[in-house]
Amino acid sequence: MVESKQQWKAWLYLSPAIILLLVFTVWPIINTVRMAFLEGYSGLAAVGGQTFQFGFGNFVKVVKYKRFLNCLKNTVLLCVLTVPISSFLALLIAVCLNSIKPLQKVLQTIFFLPYVTNSIAIGMVFAAMFNIVGSFFGTENEIIVTAGIINNIIEFFGGHAVNWINAGSSYIANLTVMVVYIVWNALPFKILILLGGLQSINKQYYEAARVDGTSRTRIFTRITVPLLSPMLAYVVITGFIGGFKEYTSIVGIFGEKMGPPDDAGRMNTMVGFIYDSLSSNNQGRASAAALILFAIILVVTLINLQVSKKRVHY
Protein backbone atom coordinates (compact mmCIF):
# COMPACT_ATOMS: atom_id res chain seq x y z
CA MET A 1 0.00 0.00 0.00
CA VAL A 2 1.17 3.51 -0.83
CA GLU A 3 1.39 5.82 2.16
CA SER A 4 -1.13 8.67 2.11
CA LYS A 5 1.66 11.26 2.03
CA GLN A 6 3.12 9.65 -1.08
CA GLN A 7 -0.13 9.15 -3.01
CA TRP A 8 0.42 12.33 -5.03
CA LYS A 9 3.43 10.65 -6.63
CA ALA A 10 1.30 7.69 -7.68
CA TRP A 11 -1.29 10.04 -9.21
CA LEU A 12 1.51 11.96 -10.93
CA TYR A 13 2.87 8.80 -12.53
CA LEU A 14 -0.62 7.71 -13.56
CA SER A 15 -1.65 11.11 -14.92
CA PRO A 16 -0.41 10.60 -18.54
CA ALA A 17 -2.34 7.34 -18.86
CA ILE A 18 -5.42 8.82 -17.18
CA ILE A 19 -5.38 11.86 -19.48
CA LEU A 20 -5.11 9.67 -22.58
CA LEU A 21 -7.90 7.45 -21.27
CA LEU A 22 -10.17 10.42 -20.66
CA VAL A 23 -9.45 12.00 -24.06
CA PHE A 24 -9.55 8.93 -26.29
CA THR A 25 -11.98 6.62 -24.42
CA VAL A 26 -14.23 8.36 -21.89
CA TRP A 27 -14.98 11.49 -23.91
CA PRO A 28 -15.76 9.61 -27.18
CA ILE A 29 -18.23 7.41 -25.28
CA ILE A 30 -19.95 10.44 -23.74
CA ASN A 31 -19.98 12.23 -27.11
CA THR A 32 -21.44 9.18 -28.84
CA VAL A 33 -24.34 9.10 -26.38
CA ARG A 34 -24.85 12.84 -26.87
CA MET A 35 -24.91 12.62 -30.68
CA ALA A 36 -27.27 9.64 -30.62
CA PHE A 37 -29.99 11.75 -28.99
CA LEU A 38 -29.52 14.81 -31.24
CA GLU A 39 -31.92 14.20 -34.12
CA GLY A 40 -30.26 14.25 -37.55
CA TYR A 41 -26.91 15.25 -36.09
CA SER A 42 -24.19 15.96 -38.65
CA GLY A 43 -20.68 17.08 -37.79
CA LEU A 44 -20.38 19.43 -40.76
CA ALA A 45 -23.76 21.00 -40.05
CA ALA A 46 -22.84 21.45 -36.39
CA VAL A 47 -19.65 23.26 -37.39
CA GLY A 48 -21.77 25.55 -39.57
CA GLY A 49 -23.80 26.57 -36.53
CA GLN A 50 -26.88 24.38 -37.03
CA THR A 51 -28.64 23.23 -33.86
CA PHE A 52 -30.35 19.88 -33.32
CA GLN A 53 -33.29 18.91 -31.17
CA PHE A 54 -33.08 16.28 -28.45
CA GLY A 55 -35.10 13.15 -29.24
CA PHE A 56 -35.17 9.54 -30.39
CA GLY A 57 -35.38 10.26 -34.11
CA ASN A 58 -31.97 8.73 -34.87
CA PHE A 59 -32.99 5.43 -33.32
CA VAL A 60 -36.23 5.40 -35.30
CA LYS A 61 -34.34 6.08 -38.54
CA VAL A 62 -31.87 3.27 -37.80
CA VAL A 63 -34.62 0.72 -37.17
CA LYS A 64 -36.60 1.82 -40.25
CA TYR A 65 -33.53 1.86 -42.53
CA LYS A 66 -33.97 -0.79 -45.22
CA ARG A 67 -30.50 -2.31 -44.72
CA PHE A 68 -30.59 -2.35 -40.92
CA LEU A 69 -32.46 -5.64 -40.51
CA ASN A 70 -30.17 -7.26 -43.07
CA CYS A 71 -27.09 -6.09 -41.14
CA LEU A 72 -28.58 -7.30 -37.86
CA LYS A 73 -29.48 -10.69 -39.39
CA ASN A 74 -25.96 -11.16 -40.77
CA THR A 75 -24.38 -10.23 -37.43
CA VAL A 76 -26.59 -12.60 -35.41
CA LEU A 77 -26.15 -15.47 -37.87
CA LEU A 78 -22.36 -15.12 -37.88
CA CYS A 79 -22.31 -15.14 -34.06
CA VAL A 80 -24.68 -18.07 -33.64
CA LEU A 81 -22.86 -20.18 -36.23
CA THR A 82 -19.22 -19.36 -35.56
CA VAL A 83 -18.97 -19.15 -31.76
CA PRO A 84 -20.14 -22.72 -30.96
CA ILE A 85 -18.17 -24.24 -33.85
CA SER A 86 -14.93 -22.39 -33.09
CA SER A 87 -15.22 -23.06 -29.33
CA PHE A 88 -15.79 -26.78 -29.85
CA LEU A 89 -12.94 -27.12 -32.37
CA ALA A 90 -10.62 -25.09 -30.13
CA LEU A 91 -11.41 -27.42 -27.22
CA LEU A 92 -10.63 -30.53 -29.27
CA ILE A 93 -7.40 -29.09 -30.67
CA ALA A 94 -6.30 -27.88 -27.22
CA VAL A 95 -6.90 -31.34 -25.73
CA CYS A 96 -4.92 -32.95 -28.57
CA LEU A 97 -2.04 -30.48 -28.20
CA ASN A 98 -1.99 -31.04 -24.45
CA SER A 99 -1.78 -34.80 -24.96
CA ILE A 100 1.28 -34.82 -27.20
CA LYS A 101 4.87 -34.05 -26.26
CA PRO A 102 6.95 -34.10 -29.48
CA LEU A 103 6.76 -30.82 -31.42
CA GLN A 104 4.16 -29.41 -29.00
CA LYS A 105 5.74 -25.94 -28.92
CA VAL A 106 6.14 -25.89 -32.70
CA LEU A 107 2.50 -26.82 -33.25
CA GLN A 108 1.36 -24.22 -30.72
CA THR A 109 3.28 -21.58 -32.67
CA ILE A 110 1.76 -22.71 -35.98
CA PHE A 111 -1.79 -22.63 -34.58
CA PHE A 112 -1.15 -19.17 -33.09
CA LEU A 113 0.15 -17.60 -36.32
CA PRO A 114 -3.29 -16.49 -37.65
CA TYR A 115 -3.82 -14.46 -34.46
CA VAL A 116 -0.83 -12.21 -35.22
CA THR A 117 -1.58 -11.92 -38.94
CA ASN A 118 -3.51 -8.99 -40.39
CA SER A 119 -7.20 -9.85 -40.80
CA ILE A 120 -7.50 -8.07 -44.13
CA ALA A 121 -4.52 -9.99 -45.53
CA ILE A 122 -6.00 -13.30 -44.36
CA GLY A 123 -9.35 -12.32 -45.89
CA MET A 124 -7.70 -11.63 -49.25
CA VAL A 125 -6.06 -15.08 -49.14
CA PHE A 126 -9.41 -16.72 -48.39
CA ALA A 127 -11.03 -14.72 -51.18
CA ALA A 128 -8.43 -16.09 -53.61
CA MET A 129 -9.00 -19.62 -52.30
CA PHE A 130 -12.77 -19.50 -52.80
CA ASN A 131 -12.78 -17.17 -55.78
CA ILE A 132 -12.98 -17.93 -59.47
CA VAL A 133 -9.59 -16.37 -60.08
CA GLY A 134 -10.13 -15.44 -63.71
CA SER A 135 -10.85 -16.55 -67.25
CA PHE A 136 -8.93 -16.34 -70.50
CA PHE A 137 -9.14 -17.51 -74.12
CA GLY A 138 -7.35 -20.71 -75.06
CA THR A 139 -5.68 -21.64 -78.33
CA GLU A 140 -9.02 -22.23 -80.04
CA ASN A 141 -10.66 -19.16 -78.51
CA GLU A 142 -12.51 -21.27 -75.95
CA ILE A 143 -13.04 -19.65 -72.55
CA ILE A 144 -10.93 -21.29 -69.86
CA VAL A 145 -11.87 -20.52 -66.24
CA THR A 146 -9.22 -20.66 -63.54
CA ALA A 147 -10.82 -21.66 -60.24
CA GLY A 148 -9.54 -21.17 -56.71
CA ILE A 149 -8.03 -23.99 -54.69
CA ILE A 150 -11.33 -24.86 -52.94
CA ASN A 151 -13.14 -25.45 -56.22
CA ASN A 152 -10.13 -27.39 -57.51
CA ILE A 153 -10.41 -29.72 -54.51
CA ILE A 154 -14.17 -30.11 -55.04
CA GLU A 155 -13.67 -30.95 -58.72
CA PHE A 156 -10.85 -33.37 -57.87
CA PHE A 157 -13.32 -35.44 -55.85
CA GLY A 158 -15.88 -35.39 -58.65
CA GLY A 159 -17.96 -32.42 -57.58
CA HIS A 160 -18.88 -29.24 -59.41
CA ALA A 161 -17.30 -25.86 -58.83
CA VAL A 162 -19.34 -23.55 -56.62
CA ASN A 163 -19.74 -19.83 -57.15
CA TRP A 164 -18.77 -18.78 -53.64
CA ILE A 165 -18.30 -15.00 -53.74
CA ASN A 166 -18.53 -13.80 -57.33
CA ALA A 167 -21.46 -12.13 -59.07
CA GLY A 168 -24.47 -14.44 -59.08
CA SER A 169 -23.42 -16.30 -55.94
CA SER A 170 -26.06 -17.26 -53.39
CA TYR A 171 -26.40 -15.93 -49.87
CA ILE A 172 -25.77 -19.41 -48.44
CA ALA A 173 -22.48 -19.65 -50.35
CA ASN A 174 -21.39 -16.21 -49.10
CA LEU A 175 -22.34 -17.11 -45.53
CA THR A 176 -20.45 -20.41 -45.75
CA VAL A 177 -17.25 -18.64 -46.77
CA MET A 178 -17.59 -16.17 -43.92
CA VAL A 179 -18.24 -18.90 -41.33
CA VAL A 180 -15.18 -20.88 -42.46
CA TYR A 181 -12.98 -17.80 -42.35
CA ILE A 182 -14.20 -16.47 -38.99
CA VAL A 183 -13.95 -19.91 -37.34
CA TRP A 184 -10.40 -20.37 -38.64
CA ASN A 185 -9.43 -16.86 -37.55
CA ALA A 186 -10.96 -17.27 -34.07
CA LEU A 187 -9.27 -20.59 -33.25
CA PRO A 188 -5.77 -19.38 -32.19
CA PHE A 189 -6.88 -17.20 -29.28
CA LYS A 190 -9.33 -19.79 -27.99
CA ILE A 191 -6.79 -22.60 -28.29
CA LEU A 192 -4.26 -20.55 -26.32
CA ILE A 193 -6.74 -19.86 -23.50
CA LEU A 194 -8.02 -23.45 -23.30
CA LEU A 195 -4.54 -24.95 -23.52
CA GLY A 196 -3.43 -22.80 -20.60
CA GLY A 197 -6.46 -23.99 -18.65
CA LEU A 198 -5.74 -27.63 -19.43
CA GLN A 199 -2.16 -27.36 -18.26
CA SER A 200 -3.32 -25.91 -14.93
CA ILE A 201 -5.63 -28.84 -14.13
CA ASN A 202 -4.30 -31.06 -11.36
CA LYS A 203 -3.03 -34.29 -12.92
CA GLN A 204 -4.14 -36.30 -9.88
CA TYR A 205 -7.71 -36.26 -11.20
CA TYR A 206 -6.62 -38.03 -14.38
CA GLU A 207 -4.41 -40.49 -12.52
CA ALA A 208 -7.26 -41.46 -10.21
CA ALA A 209 -9.60 -41.90 -13.18
CA ARG A 210 -7.10 -44.15 -14.97
CA VAL A 211 -6.68 -46.29 -11.84
CA ASP A 212 -10.47 -46.77 -11.81
CA GLY A 213 -10.39 -47.75 -15.51
CA THR A 214 -12.45 -44.77 -16.66
CA SER A 215 -12.75 -44.40 -20.42
CA ARG A 216 -11.22 -41.41 -22.23
CA THR A 217 -14.65 -40.17 -23.27
CA ARG A 218 -15.88 -40.16 -19.67
CA ILE A 219 -12.67 -38.48 -18.50
CA PHE A 220 -13.22 -35.77 -21.09
CA THR A 221 -16.89 -35.15 -20.22
CA ARG A 222 -16.64 -35.62 -16.43
CA ILE A 223 -13.23 -34.16 -15.62
CA THR A 224 -11.81 -32.04 -18.43
CA VAL A 225 -14.92 -30.10 -19.43
CA PRO A 226 -16.16 -29.29 -15.87
CA LEU A 227 -12.70 -28.19 -14.69
CA LEU A 228 -12.21 -26.20 -17.89
CA SER A 229 -15.67 -24.58 -17.73
CA PRO A 230 -14.41 -21.15 -16.52
CA MET A 231 -12.15 -20.88 -19.58
CA LEU A 232 -14.92 -22.19 -21.84
CA ALA A 233 -17.30 -19.56 -20.46
CA TYR A 234 -14.67 -16.89 -21.08
CA VAL A 235 -14.02 -17.86 -24.71
CA VAL A 236 -17.75 -18.11 -25.42
CA ILE A 237 -18.51 -14.68 -23.94
CA THR A 238 -15.57 -13.01 -25.69
CA GLY A 239 -16.48 -14.90 -28.87
CA PHE A 240 -19.97 -13.42 -28.89
CA ILE A 241 -18.61 -9.94 -28.16
CA GLY A 242 -16.10 -10.25 -31.00
CA GLY A 243 -18.70 -11.78 -33.32
CA PHE A 244 -21.09 -8.86 -32.89
CA LYS A 245 -18.22 -6.52 -33.83
CA GLU A 246 -17.33 -8.46 -36.99
CA TYR A 247 -16.32 -6.20 -39.85
CA THR A 248 -12.74 -6.61 -41.11
CA SER A 249 -13.36 -10.21 -42.19
CA ILE A 250 -16.20 -9.12 -44.48
CA VAL A 251 -14.02 -6.40 -46.01
CA GLY A 252 -11.16 -8.87 -46.45
CA ILE A 253 -13.37 -11.29 -48.39
CA PHE A 254 -15.71 -9.00 -50.31
CA GLY A 255 -13.96 -5.63 -50.23
CA GLU A 256 -15.63 -2.33 -49.43
CA LYS A 257 -18.85 -3.39 -51.18
CA MET A 258 -19.47 -5.90 -48.36
CA GLY A 259 -21.00 -8.37 -50.78
CA PRO A 260 -20.76 -9.82 -54.30
CA PRO A 261 -20.45 -7.28 -57.14
CA ASP A 262 -24.11 -7.61 -58.16
CA ASP A 263 -25.47 -7.23 -54.61
CA ALA A 264 -23.36 -4.74 -52.65
CA GLY A 265 -24.03 -4.73 -48.93
CA ARG A 266 -25.51 -8.24 -48.82
CA MET A 267 -23.05 -9.40 -46.12
CA ASN A 268 -22.85 -6.09 -44.26
CA THR A 269 -22.86 -6.19 -40.46
CA MET A 270 -23.81 -3.80 -37.66
CA VAL A 271 -20.30 -2.36 -37.48
CA GLY A 272 -20.32 -1.95 -41.26
CA PHE A 273 -23.65 -0.15 -40.96
CA ILE A 274 -22.07 2.25 -38.44
CA TYR A 275 -19.10 2.94 -40.73
CA ASP A 276 -21.44 3.54 -43.69
CA SER A 277 -23.35 6.12 -41.65
CA LEU A 278 -20.11 7.85 -40.67
CA SER A 279 -18.92 7.96 -44.29
CA SER A 280 -22.17 9.69 -45.27
CA ASN A 281 -21.60 12.33 -42.55
CA ASN A 282 -24.56 11.10 -40.50
CA GLN A 283 -22.94 10.85 -37.08
CA GLY A 284 -26.28 10.89 -35.29
CA ARG A 285 -27.48 7.72 -37.00
CA ALA A 286 -24.07 6.09 -36.55
CA SER A 287 -24.10 6.87 -32.82
CA ALA A 288 -27.63 5.52 -32.44
CA ALA A 289 -26.63 2.30 -34.22
CA ALA A 290 -23.57 2.04 -31.97
CA LEU A 291 -25.75 2.29 -28.85
CA ILE A 292 -28.15 -0.33 -30.23
CA LEU A 293 -25.20 -2.64 -30.87
CA PHE A 294 -23.89 -1.96 -27.36
CA ALA A 295 -27.30 -2.84 -25.89
CA ILE A 296 -27.42 -6.12 -27.84
CA ILE A 297 -23.90 -7.09 -26.74
CA LEU A 298 -24.74 -6.18 -23.14
CA VAL A 299 -27.90 -8.33 -23.11
CA VAL A 300 -26.15 -11.32 -24.69
CA THR A 301 -23.22 -10.98 -22.26
CA LEU A 302 -25.55 -10.83 -19.25
CA ILE A 303 -27.39 -13.93 -20.49
CA ASN A 304 -24.08 -15.76 -20.88
CA LEU A 305 -22.99 -14.71 -17.41
CA GLN A 306 -26.29 -15.88 -15.94
CA VAL A 307 -25.99 -19.25 -17.67
CA SER A 308 -22.37 -19.61 -16.61
CA LYS A 309 -23.33 -19.22 -12.96
CA LYS A 310 -25.21 -22.50 -13.18
CA ARG A 311 -22.85 -24.35 -15.52
CA VAL A 312 -19.38 -23.14 -14.55
CA HIS A 313 -17.48 -24.94 -11.77
CA TYR A 314 -14.78 -22.84 -10.06
Q: What's the number of domains?
A: 2
Strand content: under 5%
CATH homology superfamily of the largest domain? MetI-like
Strand order of the largest sheet: 1-2
CATH class membership of the largest domain:
Mainly Alpha
- Low confidence ranges: none
Kindly describe this structure.
By secondary structure, the protein is mostly helical. It has 2 domains: 59-130 and 166-311, MetI-like fold; 132-165, no CATH class. 69% of the residues lie in helices and 4% in strands. It is built from 13 helices and 2 strands. The protein has helices at residues 7-36, 43-47, 57-64, 68-99, 104-112, 119-130, 149-156, 171-199, 203-211, 216-244, 248-254, 270-279, 283-311; strands at 132-137, 143-147. It has a two-stranded antiparallel ribbon. A hairpin with a 5-residue loop joins strand 1 and strand 2. Helix 3 crosses helix 13 and helix 8 (171-199) packs across helix 10. It is globular and about 80 Å long. The two termini are 29 Å apart.
What layout of secondary structure does this protein have?
Layout: H1 7-36, H2 43-47, H3 57-64, H4 68-99, H5 104-112, H6 119-130, E1 132-137, E2 143-147, H7 149-156, H8 171-199, H9 203-211, H10 216-244, H11 248-254, H12 270-279, H13 283-311
Antiparallel strand pairs: 1-2
Helix pairs in contact: 1-13, 3-13, 4-8, 4-10, 6-11, 8-10, 10-13, 12-13
Quick summary:
The protein has 13 helices and two strands; from the N terminus they run H-H-H-H-H-H-E-E-H-H-H-H-H-H-H. It has 314 residues and is mostly helical.
